[in-house]
Design goal:
The complex is a heterodimer of chains A (308) and B (306). Chain A is mostly helical and 308 residues long. Chain A is 74% helix and 1% strand. In chain A, strand 1 and strand 2 form a beta hairpin. Chain B is built from 17 helices and no strands. In chain B, 69% of the residues lie in helices and 0% in strands. Chain B is mostly helical and 306 residues long. The chains are: A mainly alpha (308), B mainly alpha (306). The interface between A and B is large, with 105 and 107 residues.
Amino acid sequence: MTVPVQRETRVVPAQAPSKRRSMSWMAGYLFILPAIIGFVVFYLYPALRGIQISFTDWNLLSAPEAVGLANYQEAIRDPKFWSALGITLQYVVWNIPLQTLLALVLAVAMDRLVKSMFIKGLLIVPYLLSSVLVAMIFLWMLDPLLGIVNQWLDATPLGKQPFFNSAEQAIPTIALVNVWKHMGFNALLFYAGLQAIPRTVYEAAAIDGSSEVNTFWKITLPLLRPVTVFVLVTSVIGSFQIFDTVAVATQGGPADATKVLVYYIYQNAFGFFRMGYATAMSMILFALLILFTLVQMRLLRANESDLE
Amino acid sequence: MTTVPNTPSQIHRPRKPFPFGRLLAWLGLALILLISVFPIWIVLKTALTGSRSLFTEAASLWPSEPTLVNFQRVLGLLSLEEVQAAGGSGSSVNFLNAMKNSVVFTGLIVVGQTFFSAMAAYAFARLKFPGRDAIFTMFLIAMMIPGIVLFIPNFITIRNLNLLNTIPGMIAPFILMTPFAVFFLRQFFLSLPKETEEAAFLDGAGPFTIFWRITLPMSQGPIATLAILTTIGMWNEFFWPFLIAKDEASFTLPVALQVFKSQTPQGVPDWTGLMAGTFIAAIPVFLLLIVLGRRVVESLAFSGTK
């Protein structure tokens, strides 16, 4: 039994080592071929093409006309661009702190009280829904006429609220709706991070007489930092790209109060067919996201771990 | 872990007064759970309410005369006269067809993306070829690019290929790879022991046989995780199908719902129909959670441990 196998292992490398290696080069390229096609056609090419389009004036019908930096200059002078950026920031400021804080509290509560799979399952139900569905659900629940929230509010001193229909409340409403969608999922991420903290650390703290609150600030939060960085960076990147909820719930209104940056870019590209201007603004958004990510990672000292 | 109750900390724990803090935490948790699932109930309740009763029982938590008529009409099981008799607006979107499109869209992408990404991930983890690490680095950088940057040029590509309004146009950017899928599976393949693969290699097995017969069967967990994440993401994807599908025949469910809603810009939207459609669109992810509960939760939790 062992003899033929031994013979074979001796024969194969002796036969043609260079041929074997070139075969495996070929195999490597064959294996990545489908993914490379996808990458080149739908990631690399569009990224480069986007840069190129951003230096042109192009309505999709006539030939693109090179305009140099004009689109970027226009964005800087465009009050609607700045307003869209401001509204986006406003959304991020409403959305991120609340979402992250609630998720953290929920994760600690789950960790200390229950570890039930059922509760985790319930918590991620909103995350499983498409943002279109979520927008639809809250349009209905917050409907000024028949929505259940306003039916209830009507019986309180607050009275009915316009929510999506008021320029002041629309952005906070959209932000809260997305807090609802994402808090359970983020809590799950924090919870997974909490499970990774060795229990002995907590026991040592308990023996030293550290209070629950003190333990949280001095131990849990610092040891959770890698997860916090991940949750914050990904949710800030996601928040800056808010589109679906706006597209379904308000279409940028009322009175442009919810015209966030991606919605304004979308309008320019597919409403006014200003491809050059839209891609230039999307490039600016990309640059901003990179900047924010770097700043955030620096602020949160992402690469240091308190565990080592 | 199992030895924890026997450690000294159990003995040294200070005597407990009435746990007000714990009670408060429990109440808080219960409240948040209620807030998480309550809107789903309102969707179902509204979908079960007849259009006429909608006005009289807007504040109630239970439909007084539950009816399935809304589900029947959004699924196109009733004639126009019957729909209008039931209080429907007469506006209609073919939800059955949209459901079919969503299943095809999601299904093709999940199968294609998982398989082709696994092949690429295997090559990046195990095979040697010139330029391998440089190419992989480009994949990693590509993870950073926001959707809108890619969607505008991709829309132009799909338009130039005459694929607007088609399933191929809708699945094209996703079916061959995503950088995340490749990265995720490569990490896992790197952690697999090499011995079995080397033994198979010495027995004369080629790379594809090794990949298909050894690596894939050993990776069922991570592949299921990736497939679940892709299913959820693609079932819910809105922006891209919204750009590509302009005819009702090619709508996916999120697009169909959006169109159904915007068909009544004036007057009161068809809330009972909308909520029936919303509930139908959510059923597959609910089923996923019910059938694969633990797996889904763990997959989502895992997506955060990159």
